[in-house]
Structure formats: C-alpha cells, structure tokens
Amino acid sequence: MSKAAKSEETKFFHTGSAKEPFVFASGDQLPGITVAYETYGKLNAAKSNAILLFHALSGSQHAAGITKEVAGTDERWTEDCHTGWWDLFIGPDKALDTNRYFIICANYLGGCYGTSGPASLNPATGKPYGSSFPAVRTSDVVNSHLALLDHLGIQTLHAVMGSSVGGLLAINLATLYPERVKLVVPIASGCRTTVLTRLTLFEQVLAIENDPHFKGGDYYQGEAPEYGLALARMISHKTFVHLDTIERRARQDLKHGGDTLSWYRVQHNVESYMLHQGKKFVKRFDANTYLRIADMWLRFDPLRDAGVSSYAALFERSAAAGQHYLVFSIDSDFCFYPEEQAELVSHLEKAEVSNMHITVHSDKGHDSFLLEPQLYTPHLSFTLDGRWNKSSVDRPVPEVE
What we know:
With about 400 residues, the chain is an alpha/beta fold.
C-alpha cells in the first residue's frame, strides 16, 4: 500500500438529546443525530489550519486513503468506496497538503454512510426511519458540520471547499456564518438551482418514486427500489461525464449484447455502459438518501437561509468578513455550466468580495474535479498558502508541530 493510500478510519460524532433535539429547517426534530467523518493531517496548536471539505451528491466522508469498513453501512460499503474519492488531492505535498493542513470531511445528514439518515434505526421503533426521516436542507447539513467543528474545538476554518453540490454547501456555510471561514472554494458549482438542473433532478426523483418497490420510502423490510435508483443514476451520470468520454469508456470497457429488459434488447456499447453504471450504483447507495440530497439540491436557496432578498446583501457578508473566493469552472461541464460560475463571480464582484475565477480546460466534463489534480493543484496551493494576498503571506498558516 502506498503512502498516499494509507488506512483511514471513519469516526462518529453524536449530538442532540431528548431535551435538546436537533432541529431541522423544516421544524422537524430528532432526539439526536450521528455524523460520520474522517480527518487527515494534524490540527495545529492554534487550531487555525483546518479545512472543511463537502462531498458531492453520492460521495461520503471518506475523501482520502483506504477505508475498508464503516460501521452501520450494511453492504453498501462496496469495494468502489474503499479508496477516498479525493485521494489524488489529499496527502503529503498534494493540493491539500497534510503536512500543513487538517482536513475534515463528513457525510451529509440524511446520508447512508454512517451519518443519520432514512436507513438509520429509529430508537422509538427499532426500525429504519424510512419515510419518516425529515426533509434535509443545506442549512441542516451546515449546522450538523458546525456542531462537529465545535466538538473538535475549531472556531475559524482556514478554508471551506466543495465540489458540485458540495460547492453549494460551502457557499451556504460561508454566507450563514462568515466569521467562521476565511477562504471559500466552490468547484464546478453555482449560487442557485437553474431550471435545467431542476428538471434533471425532478426526472431522477420521478424515477425512484415510480419504482413499485419504493413504497413511499418504507421499503427496508422488502425489495429495494433498485430499478428506480439505477435509472436516476443513469440520468445524472450523463451530466457528470462528458459524452465523448462516455463513448470512449463504453468502447474500451464493455461489450454490448446480452442484457434484455422486458422487451427491449440492449444493442449498443453506450447503452450497456450506462446500464452497468446504474446496476453498480444501487449496490453502494440508498434510494431514500438519494432523494433527500436531490430534494436538498432542488430547494437550495441561500437568500432564504440568510434572510436576505438579494445576492448583493448575501455577499456583503463575505465582503465584511474579508473572505476570499477561489471559483473553479470546467469548460466541458454539463452539470454546472460555466455560466453558473460566471454568475457567482459577478455577484461577488458587485459586492466587492475578493475572488479569483479559474476556468479548467478539460475533455472529462464535470468529473474533471475528481480525476485531474494537475489542473487544480497550482491554484489551490496558491490560494491556501495565502499568496493571493500579500498581507496573508506575512501571516502564514502555522506549521504543524
């Protein structure tokens, strides 16, 4: 096993009680929640070198190294989950240098990788929550993560970053609690849910809802809605991976033929490839969790959460706190189009928020942020080191002892 792929262990943080329940944005409450998380590197004495990392839709707390088992995940922790999803970016001398920074990544509330979610046991019934698990908003995830930071004794983050839907959460935290973070790094993300994204997500919701095994979310005692979840994944996958890449992978990795649906016979490598992606995904993910995160994405509204009526007012908070944004676009992105990052940067500039906007040129589409560290590392290192601001260079992050 290489040094970059060392063994890691998921930890669990518990918060809330019957007397002090965790309150969701909807007003629903749970007597307590569990947050699964992993950390990489060492927190310095001043507790000033922490970076909070938000994962994408189907990601987990496992961002780097090798984690072969996670308690409470049943059979969902498949081999596909063992290597951290951002292992190419996290480690000694990598973009998120563990010789300097303390990186924290936690599974979202509503998740299925150890954090409280619909598949978790309801202590009142001894059965999975299923449909009774509350709807989740980005502010709920942010508040659960801040509770974890409080537990770790971290008051101010050196940086918060997230890719895809994780970028929405990074922006939500930065604008709700501007005093708690200095640097904000949304990667291939945006500041609102566009009409196209809304329609694509709604298609995925319908795919799961219309699976006869879904049963309104109470399916844990019987067959899981695998067909609906596989279809949802297939709908989303074509926005994550550039179509040319899908064609190349289909031609290289799989042969068509053999799969027959009720009537239709799969007859092309691309069809076989997408069906394979859907079938593989249902082994490692939960349909109820998928719906919670899709719903969270659909209802993302940082203006509502912050209690303001304009993006000018929203990002005035970032300006007042002296935050700096590093915004990444991917020119071939079909999930969060580059225009969405341009809109975000426009709002930042109007609010006079310090920012840098980088466009990555890639043929891999949205998934570039997972696969091509060489395109992101120089800019991440430049920003995290404080080289974007001369006054920050004079006050570097204290080295880990």
